[in-house]
Write a sequence for this structure.
């Protein structure tokens, strides 16, 4: 995959299914790629599925990055984290102009790659029942909570995951995590297929700089993307690809993402 395939106007979303990968094969393929810090994190995980998830995330991330930059071997990528834990390529080692964000939930992984640093992705297994009223009253804005609780049954749970994934994608893009109170910004979906964000007076941000998408990634999962462009370069396309044991990243086939809702520009 040529590096030029990733332009300012495109986001690439890679998806992987954890149970498609054999744990023993994963260890053989990528255990030797891990840094000392990554090995320490792996060894602290007690459950086999969590270890497999961590290994797959490292294997996927490093393989995908090398598909854009073939001169850099997967084991040679180096990463840093900001004070809130958001990872990025180490700028002292790599000057690729690429940025990424990774999310996982119940055996599915999503990796977003773009030319914009303020990028966030969140995937959630949406079949899981949640204490919607309790969580909304604690974490959502009054506007969001009112609209959410006016719904019932499956519609209420679906809207909950709409809001939760969008909020997670936003705070991950900002790189500040829960240091940003979730009540200080609201998402609205009054118009069909349209996502709008509103910032409260406590949150000094620019609505016109943000883009959001919700993608159809199959039953029982919801995925949201967030991107801030401070230069006015908007993304006009989201493309997605499935990362599998058979295809890896070298023969990736990208297709237009199935967009459920998006910001309007």
């Amino acid at each position: 995959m040529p590096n030029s395939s990733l332009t300012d106007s495109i986001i690439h979303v890679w998806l992987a299914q954890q149970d498609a990968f054999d744990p023993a094969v994963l260890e053989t393929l990528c255990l030797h790629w891990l840094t000392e810090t990554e090995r320490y994190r792996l060894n602290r995980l007690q459950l086999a599925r969590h270890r497999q998830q961590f290994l797959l995330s490292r294997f996927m991330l490093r393989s995908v990055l090398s598909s854009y930059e073939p001169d850099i071997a997967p084991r040679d990528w180096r990463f840093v984290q900001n004070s809130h834990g958001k990872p990025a390529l180490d700028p002292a080692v790599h000057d690729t102009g690429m940025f990424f964000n990774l999310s996982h939930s119940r055996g599915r992984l999503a990796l977003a790659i773009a030319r914009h640093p303020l990028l966030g992705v969140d995937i959630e297994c949406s079949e899981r029942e949640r204490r919607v009223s309790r969580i909304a009253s604690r974490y959502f804005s009054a506007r969001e909570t009112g609209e959410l609780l006016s719904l019932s049954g499956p519609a209420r749970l679906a809207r909950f995951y709409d809001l939760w994934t969008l909020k997670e994608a936003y705070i991950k893009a900002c790189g500040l995590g829960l240091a940003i109170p979730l009540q200080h910004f609201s998402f609205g979906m009054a118009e069909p297929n349209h996502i709008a964000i509103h910032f409260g007076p406590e949150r000094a941000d620019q609505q016109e700089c943000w883009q959001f998408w919700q993608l159809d990634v199959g039953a029982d999962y919801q995925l949201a993307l967030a991107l801030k462009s401070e230069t006015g370069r908007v993304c006009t396309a989201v493309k997605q690809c499935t990362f599998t044991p058979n295809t890896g990243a070298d023969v990736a086939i990208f297709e237009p993402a199935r967009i459920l809702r998006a910001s309007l520009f």
Remarks:
- The chain has one domain: 14-262.
